[in-house]
Amino acid sequence: LRMNVAFFIPPPAQRIGGLEAAIESLRTALERRGVPVTNDLNGAHTVAHFHGLWQRPFARLAADCRARNIPYVVSPHGMLEPWAWRHKWWKKWPYFQLVEKGMLNGADLVVATAAAEARRLQAFLPRQRIEAVPLGLTGDARPEYENARRQLGWAPHERVLLFLSRIHVKKGLNLLLEALASMPHPEHLRLVVVGEGAKDYVRGLHHFADKHAAELPRIDWQGAVWGYERWPYFQGADLFCLPTHSENFGLAVLEACQVGTPVLTTTGTPWADDLGNGRGYISEPSVESIRDALQIYFSRPILEASARQALSDWAWSTFNWDVLSDQYSSIYRRLLTSTEKHG
Fold first, then answer.
1. In angstroms, rounded to a whole number, what is the distance separating the alpha carbons of residues 306 and 312?
2. Residue 199 pLDDT > 80
């Protein structure tokens, strides 16, 4: 059965970074499998896939799908996670009840990116079918530790911590700064911050860093770096830090792992099982817990090339799109077959 998949995605300003990379990598993987991905509902044997929520055109398009007997899938991409839900909840609640809930309940399937997100979505949508399918690798980068450090001007004797994400209160950069300021740390430590965010919040972080400069390591504020240019930062870092309060998946964690860089992240992500067994460091999203995890990390030697390669090999074998795209295309085909059979 020849099928087309119509992707509907948020506007560019709302899909910067991880979501943009995730959607594009899925699109590329499907097309590599011979599944055309379009941006409209025209053509026979079409399945629609809505990425994200809170988009007014999505409700109209979903209603059009229902009227035309076109099956559709919704991936909330974390937009109903507890932290995201609490942000402007007073504005989201009436819209959710009036518009979003109907779109989600009318879907043939809701797709979560991890089991934990699926469980939380089920509480919102108790009668809806929900499946968890992870996201996959977002590029072809592999370990290039020494080359990346030379490119970025990081000395061999430095230990480099990396924060690469949107600078938002949810991401917990303030927790990392407070943890580092409250503990001894090795000589020649450098924290590299790659990202941008709301001016007031970023200004507050700079103010804290200036006030506690004597207690903090050197900090490089790099601004936003997206696209292929972000990879040397992941490749050259000694530890990637995402001290986030909440992530439905945490694609940057996977991007660090795929190039062999160990990760410190929190129980607010779904990575505890995968990284809590020696591949990384898992903390609570609190200053004290992050400090404890950093102390353990600082007590250990920098990862050798063979260990970085082993971490990369695990990520490549587990989150390869050649495997995951088959799961997505199987979902689309199953829904399309069922709809046409009963249509």
1. 10
2. yes
